[in-house]
Amino acid sequence: MTKRKIAQRIPFTPSKTQAVLLEQCFGARRFAYNQQVEVFNTYDKDTNPRPAYPNVTVMKNTHAWLKDSPVPSNALSNAIMDFRKSVTAYFRKAQYGKNRPRFASRHDAVQSFRNTMPIRRMDGNRYPLSKKLGSIRIGKRHKPRFPLDQLSSWTVKREGDKYHIVFLFDVDVQPKPAVPGRVGIDLGVKDFLVLSTGEKINYPQRLHQLEQTIIREQRRLSRKRKGTGAQSNNYYKQKTRLRKAYRKLHDWRDDYQHQVSHRLIEENQFIGMETLMVANMSRKAKKRVDETGRLVRNGQARKRTMNRNIRRVAWSGFADKLAYKAQWYGRTFQQVDRFYPSSRLCHECGWKNTGLTLRDRQWDCPACGARHDRDVNAARNILGEALRLNGYN
User: Fold this and answer.
1) Structural domain boundaries of the chain?
2) DSSP code of 57?
3) How many CA atoms lie within 13 A of 85 on its CB side?
4) Disulfide check for 367: which of 29, 292, 351, 388 has CB 3.0–4.6 Å away?
């Protein structure tokens, strides 16, 4: 039995007065974060290696309006903590030019603030946020899944015009009973998952429908123009619609992956999966020129299509879900090295097909005569290699 942090996201509708107060909280949290970023921008390795960052007390003494803000005081401290995490990530990956802290904007898709001193009680079907913010109504279908005395924090989020509160619980998670199942998983674009049992799992048609909605909303946004007055308002209205479409796709895909990963965890004690470098696989095609200096476009359209298909299936998110669920529930999850030639090896005799290409969906082994489905064969080889790495015979 181990303590785990489990989040539950609950939608709610604030009153008009409460919505105004929540916007003030979002603004105060952005202000505290941006104060840190402003000082960080003065950082210089030689002349200013240790900038003096303002703490909550200094900011409240300097800006009196923060004292009257309805935002919980520890939410400002949490904003500073979030900034420090982003700075740590920046210096860890600075050679790539990524993760540099940037100013938070009121136009960002998600606005939020976090309170790590939650009230651990309910007033009927209402949860009190604080004295200044009042309480929010929680519907029966969204009632907290765990006792509130296990609540460690809550976060209020606004995504577009939708509000959510995210409860974070400290829960004792018990391992599930052992089962005899073992499975190897080959990830793909044509088929999302191919199991060593021969089963192929794909996203339902709903994913394509949601993607078409995004394409349609993106096309409408491209026709809007930033500017002043009605043009600018229409642009931001359409941008909100596009964000909503993206969020709907993300939530649907996330829910489907949870269903599939839950099923695999329930049915199997051992799970083997290949390791894929999504960033490397989805790199843009390099521009090439011919002898006359003209741009060669051969293959670039195909490469863009492959990039889009790789991104849409979200392999990394699915692997993360399997990994933490296996850790929670006492299952073994083993990933195989990304250079392991799972598709090229015959799982019957081990002969290696060095001439295999992406177009070859089936092939015959000349050594033992076995006929292979490319992806099923890869899944079986992945299972065998994962078992070997864990010391199984």
Assistant:
1) 2-173, 182-209+244-389
2) H
3) 6
4) 351
